[in-house]
Design goal:
binds 2'-monophosphoadenosine-5'-diphosphate, six-stranded mixed sheet, 10 helices, Rossmann fold, alpha/beta, 270 residues
């Protein structure tokens, strides 16, 4: 029996236990996956308590991904590049930190939505933790270039510099976005949380595939995409399931059928 959990604060509305229960059922793996609300300043104590109870692994969500990075004793390349950890595997005294967010996004885009990123121009809005977490797997798909646009321009230029060794990147302020269309726009800002959409040139959306990392509702970004003639519009539910699948595989070496689970979770969420 695998002993697994997700840590967050808040955590009540997490869909992860449902998703992992579906994966376990599908793959015939015996697993118990619970939600753990850790105090804002008490993540590592909560995590050690769980590890001492015989945990095999756990996921980490907002606001503990950097704490989890610090807790891990070794880090995968994804975790190193993201400077954040959303999945830990307990291996004796070793805590292996991984970050499956970017793989989750890429698998949703390429496998479920059949969007080939090779040679495409990708525009990412935002330059916070979410963007840092997805850049390496996106660049590994060999897009033509990734443009990072952020309200605070300096954060975008810094991120572009940090990742330049993995592919063609550039960073600038949101106001520098031109009306020239791009292939894919990814909203990795937290603006939607406040019901906001950054005020940017609208022509950039024309015929672009628009993807919001947020899920569960028609976000302001998705509404903006629709009004401005995007060719396809997606929320981040597929990414949520795919990042969970990559974590499940990291722990159990079993690969779940994500499309069936996305359908089920979508139906629950509608
Ligand atoms: P996360 O871990 O979700 O990425 P974060 O690190 O706090 O959270 O980053 C939030 C991102 O959303 C930042 O890029 C932020 O822009 P700034 O760097 O200028 O703060 C961006 N963001 C948040 N609200 C926004 C808004 N209303 N308009 C534009 N960008 C916004």
């Amino acid at each position: 029996m695998y002993k697994l959990a997700v840590f967050g604060n808040p955590i009540e509305h997490s869909l992860s236990p449902k998703i992992h229960a579906l994966f376990a059922h599908q793959t015939g793996v015996q697993a118990e996956y619970t939600k753990i609300l850790a105090p804002i300043d008490g993540f590592s104590q909560s995590a050690y308590d769980f590890i001492n109870q015989g945990a095999d692994g756990f996921n980490i969500t907002v606001p503990f991904k950097i704490d989890a990075f610090n807790l891990a004793t070794t880090h995968t390349i994804n975790a190193q590049c993201a400077s954040a950890v959303n999945t830990i595997k307990v291996n004796g005294n070793e805590l292996i930190g991984e970050n499956t967010d970017g793989i989750g996004l890429v698998n949703d885009l390429t496998k479920n939505l059949e969007i080939d990123l090779h040679d495409k121009i990708v525009l990412i809005l935002g330059a916070g933790g979410a963007t840092r977490g997805i850049l390496l797997p996106l660049l590994q798909q060999n897009p033509k270039r990734i443009m990072i646009a952020n309200r605070t321009a300096s954060k975008a230029t810094q991120l572009a510099k940090d990742f330049a060794k993995y592919g063609k990147t550039c960073g600038f302020g949101l106001e520098k976005i031109k009306n020239d269309p791009v292939d894919i726009i990814i909203n990795a800002t937290s603006a939607s949380l406040n019901g906001e959409m950054p005020n940017i040139a609208t022509g950039v959306a024309n015929n672009a595939a628009c993807y919001d990392l947020m899920y569960g509702q028609q976000t302001p970004f998705m509404q903006w995409a629709e009004v401005n003639n995007a060719s396809m519009i997606f929320d981040g539910l597929g990414m949520l399931v795919e990042q969970a699948a990559a974590a499940f595989e990291f722990w159990t070496e079993k690969q779940p059928d994500t499309q069936a689970v996305i359908k089920t979770i979508k139906a629950l969420n509608d």
